Amino acid sequence: MHDDNSGGRTDSIRPRHRIGDRGDHFLKRVEGETGANISACYQCERCTNACPVSAFMDVKPHQVIRYIQIGWRERLLSCSTVWVCLSCEMCTTYCPNDVGVAETIQHLRKMAANSAIQPRELQLATFHRTFIEELQRFGRVNEFWLMGALNLKPGILKDKIRTGALKEEIELGLTLWRRGKLKLLPHRCKAVGEIRTVVQNRNGKVR
Ligand code: SF4
Ligand code: SF4
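# iron/sulfur cluster complex -> structure
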């Protein structure tokens, strides 16, 4: 007979993390870098309910905020959420405490991009990185060159061939080209130097 609620499964009992176990360094850092009011979150979940893509996230928006409060950096920087987020800001709009959820997730995305932690959504993470590289190259993004540069990144082309995404991409590209919607040669923006400075300054704020 067992006099606890474990049902006898003593081998599965593990110590639980409580708020404060990991200190509040990560919380203070993210609040300082974003200006977001993360400490004010009381987990009402309105942000998650308002998010159009929360079903595709492994860590929901309200959990993102909670994990920052308890300092779970590794979990956040490896989650799919930072890459799945559309930056539509519905979560920020619906939050009753002005927490700044969307801005926080965008910041975590930059932290993830600059960290050595392997992203869960490799395709999306590589797309994000390539987009920024192309933006710095020409000052604007040419879709044809962007997809070409993306397909040359390790593992991308192989995965697209395996899933059939490459065939769809080629068909879409041909349709756009026939309709004059796809330019094969990129145009360099006059303000490319300024755009590079903006991107580098933004990346420089995230360590
Ligand atoms: S809506 Fe705001 S207060 Fe509610 S869980 Fe989300 S971040 Fe926290
Ligand atoms: S900004 Fe991201 S997390 Fe917020 S509602 Fe939009 S998709 Fe969801």
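# post-check
Residues 50-51, 53, 61, 85-91, 101-102, 105 surround iron/sulfur cluster (ligand 2) (CB under 6 Å).
The mean pLDDT is 85.
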